[in-house]
């Protein structure tokens, strides 16, 4: 009997510690919720951007190996985001103000919503089912991640404004205002071939790497001393 009650007591303590240690996280400070700090939000968007870049890099490499094993046949594409001025290296990114760097990140994320969705639709309809069934699912995954990350960065910017480390000039940027409309026309006509798929994957791998690096730099300039 003593052993039974000892087991009951242990289970009760475990249940209590679980309830105490797993307070739900929320954005608006409701009762019983933990409002994430700015450092928490930075960590989340950086982790998301790293995962997004990893998936896009893997997909681009696998696509090249499957369709273009001889890379000599592939030229360097002109990406539709070439009109978005981005820092060339870490030093230039660090010299940008927080407002400018945040806007660059939002512009890059916003510019990829339609092209990635078009890529998914084109891949899912392609007759090369051996590879494109897998790749179209990955394209849809990174398309969803772009939207989620853009929402996360927008919330991060609002938190920065409330903390007084970001000006009120940073706001919502519509995708249509990011790049010239002619840059989107190629991706909207719905007739993409394997080379078009490759170019989009190449460009997104490049831009997702920029987004990941810029977020890390933005964190370090905003919250110096935290893993920088």
UniProtKB/TrEMBL annotation:
Signal sequence range = 1-22
Q: List keywords of the entry alphabetically.
A: Disulfide bond, Hormone, Secreted, Signal
- Broad class of the protein's primary localization: secreted
Q: Which residues form a coiled coil?
A: none
Q: Does the keyword Transit peptide apply?
A: no
Q: Which GO terms describe its biological process?
A: positive regulation of receptor signaling pathway via JAK-STAT; response to nutrient levels
Q: Where in the cell is it found?
A: Secreted
Fetch the InterPro entries from UniProt. 4_helix_cytokine-like_core, Somatotropin/Prolactin, Somatotropin_CS
GO cellular component terms attached to this protein's record: extracellular space
Q: Name one GO molecular function term.
A: hormone activity
* SUPFAM superfamilies for this protein: 4-helical cytokines
A Pfam family annotated for this chain is Hormone_1
- Hey, which family's this protein in? Belongs to the somatotropin/prolactin family.
This chain belongs to which protein, by name? Prolactin 2
Organism of origin is Sparus aurata (Gilthead sea bream)
Name the gene that codes for it: LOC115586220
